[in-house]
Design a protein that fits this description.
Layout lengths: L1 E4 L1 H8 L10 E2 L2 E2 L7 E4 L12 H6 L5 H10 L15 H14 L4 E5 L7 H16 L3 E5 L3 H6 L4 E2 L5
Parallel strand pairs: 1-6, 1-7, 4-5, 5-6
Antiparallel strand pairs: 2-3
Helix pairs in contact: 3-4, 4-5
């Protein structure tokens, strides 16, 4: 399943809003703590990369060597295993976080404004990757104001919130 929602709800779902008093459910099961269930790709990916190499970074989310290698290959990063994540381009950093979400066992992926800094071709490729993740069983939630992205994601369910 593929959804696009208002930014406030993404923050509540991911547990970043500590004032949120509601409960989040996935498949009729309360999910708490949310970090066991949710992978998140925030708008500024520089705040999510902490280790000394791409391989070490993806190893945070999975011990499965094959899953990690497959995800890095899928996102075009298999030749950058020893590179420091902060030395990657903005698009490569974003693809690393998508590879991490793919390799993890977490069933929910939330992306906050994932197209900032991407050209149209990169955005279309990212949408294809997100659809592949959805086909593999992950629930993909995209928070965006980008109408080009919304039109490109036409296969998913779009929820628009208007104030």
């Amino acid at each position: 399943m593929f959804r696009i929602i208002q930014p406030f709800f993404g923050v509540c779902l991911s547990g970043l809003n500590k004032n949120f008093k509601g409960q989040t459910y996935y498949n009729n099961q309360a999910i708490k703590p949310s970090y066991n269930w949710i992978s998140e790709v925030v708008q500024d990916v520089n705040y999510q990369l902490f280790t000394e190499s791409v391989w070490t970074e993806i190893s945070i989310v999975s011990d499965n060597k094959k899953a990690k290698k497959d995800a890095l290959t899928q996102f075009g990063l298999s030749d950058k295993l020893e590179r420091h994540p902060q030395s990657l381009s903005g698009g490569e950093k974003q693809r690393l976080l998508l590879a991490m979400a793919t390799a993890s066992n977490k069933p929910i992926v939330i992306l906050d404004e994932p197209t900032s800094g991407l050209c149209r071709r990169q955005m279309e490729r990212m949408v294809e990757d997100l659809h592949e993740m959805a086909k593999s069983g992950k629930l993909i939630i995209v928070v965006t104001h980008d109408f080009e992205l919304i039109k490109t994601c036409s296969k998913g369910r779009i929820i628009e919130f208007v104030e």
